[in-house]
Amino acid sequence: MKYVLVTGGVVSGLGKGVTASSIGVLLKACGLRVTSIKIDPYLNTDAGTMSPFEHGEVFVLDDGGEVDLDLGNYERFLDITLTRDNNITTGKIYQSVIDKERRGDYLGKTVQVVPHITDAIQEWIERVAMIPVDSKEGPADVCVIELGGTIGDIESMPFIEALGQFLYRVGPGNFCLVHVSLVPVLNVVGEQKTKPTQHSVRGLRGLGLVPNILACRSSKELDENVKEKLAQFCHVPAENIITLYDVPNIWHIPLLLRDQKAHNALLKGLNLHSVAGEPDLDEWTSRTRLYDKLHDSVKIAMVGKYTGLSDSYLSVLKALLHASVASNRKLTVEWVPAGDLEDISAKEAPEVYAAAWELLKGADGVLVPGGFGDRGVQGKILAAKYARENGIPFLGICLGMQIAVIEFARSVLGIHDANSTEFDPETANPCVVFMPEGSKTHMGGTMRLGSRRTYFNVMDCKSAKLYGNVKFVDERHRHRYEVNPEMVCQLENAGLSFVGSDETGRRMEIVELDAHPYFVGVQFHPEFKSRPGKPSPLFLGLIKAACGQLDAFLQKNGSVSQFSADTTSNGHAKIKILQNGHSPKSGNGLLNAAYGNAVVCPWKDVNHC
């Protein structure tokens, strides 16, 4: 097994995750099998209980692991399926060591950071690196490890020590260190400054790690004299100094690495030249160029609770992007804070209220993503109502689906106090209820998590058609509440169609409105399995409907197994997303057509993949 370690210096937010993912893409293009590990030095066991404002979205894996959003980058870039153990945290390491101590595994020894914690880190890396992640037998050829945080952080020290020991454990020919650093350009003089990177590398070397490759983030390509200066003072060959300058989208990053011959430095450091070929990135290049040329827009309104931080909905944004590129449209996301749509906002901040409704009404489609808590719920309900009554394409995910069901019960059935027990535990008409197997005392890891099977009850629906007319689909879940099965018949008699359910037939998974152009709600999170070149079918359905292409698409692709971008025209898609929604209501059959077993990325802060 070969290992590539990606570290960061100077400041956080430089894009280590995208760099690590792009290195994986480059090595995979050379014919190697790649797996990934993310190390997060925080004490949390996992990301499940962390606020999206604190750490971005919580990415959910097939095995139910709630992990850092960078693992989503790895899965999307490399088209692999990771496990919860591919995300190492300080909490997990200390918990495993303490559990061993309690069992008496250390035979009375004093348990210390060195060697017990550092040994546990190394053993975890070696064990997880051997787990296949690409549906093939046997371990991968290369494991790309990203160390979160910045060199010098106190909480990272045990991992730095462990990785220093690990280097000597596996040998220099099996270990390559890529250090991502910042080369700022001062506006006053317009000169690229190398001192921050020099200090960062000095700190790294002082901790026992020597970089083989420098990946320098800058607003523009590094000048040759700057590279020579960095090579001299950082003791890294000039040909191993890579510029990661600002690009239109992060799908350019693997191409930047290839064009600067980063693969040669990686393969040389890992002694893999004899088994690896030249990188084949033709398909990746074509998709990237297509993305850059799109000009016709599709506008989607994102109605949610965490609109102040786009990383809170990172996978949703990427799924929209994948579907837009596949539809030859340039995506425009209109961020609509759900609370701004509510009547109280009209009284307290009329200008904000008017602006929010203007954004919503100007969108080609509406999306209400998942969320928790009652803040902004009424605004999401109003957004779902607007989309339903005006024939605007709508997709509700998790809470977004539940919101759609509540709105339908209130507006169509006339049950004005219909609600979720999450927002009103004493409601007389609960449309959404707490799942019986859930825990009300512990938050972490107690939801219905991971990949679950959804069976189509109705095959003549948009959802089933989008998925390729399959009998069932496996999608990832993360929820505590579900549609009340006691109200399903009443809702369906009024026109709301539950076209998908779990194996028991009592847990509703997909809802549609038959007479609507595209009104779909799902209890699961289809965004987690979307890939560049293989967009999520339901997101593809939303974009196609927003562009007026859905009917023709469904007629042409009655059974879809894979989606790819039509390069005959350029376009730009604009979609509205409703924030803080669990799942929206939908019309019969809309979801299936979008999921034809299909699943298709830019820099940190310039669009994650």
From TrEMBL:
InterPro entries: Class_I_gatase-like, CTP_synthase, CTP_synthase_N, GATASE, GATase1_CTP_Synthase, P-loop_NTPase. GO terms for biological process: 'de novo' CTP biosynthetic process; pyrimidine nucleobase biosynthetic process. Pathway: Pyrimidine metabolism; CTP biosynthesis via de novo pathway; CTP from UDP: step 2/2. The keyword Secreted does not apply. It is an enzyme of class 6 (ligase). PROSITE patterns: GATASE_TYPE_1. Pfam families: CTP_synth_N, GATase. It comes from the Eukaryota. The keyword Nucleotide-binding applies. Keywords: ATP-binding, Glutamine amidotransferase, Ligase, Nucleotide-binding, Pyrimidine biosynthesis. Its EC number is 6.3.4.2. Residues 2-272 form the CTP synthase N-terminal domain. GO terms for molecular function: ATP binding; CTP synthase activity; identical protein binding. Residues 310-544 form the Glutamine amidotransferase domain. It catalyses: UTP + L-glutamine + ATP + H2O = CTP + L-glutamate + ADP + phosphate + 2 H(+). Signal peptide: none annotated. NCBIfam families: PRK05380.1, PyrG. Belongs to the CTP synthase family. Catalyzes the ATP-dependent amination of UTP to CTP with either L-glutamine or ammonia as the source of nitrogen. This is CTP synthase. The gene is LOC111468416.
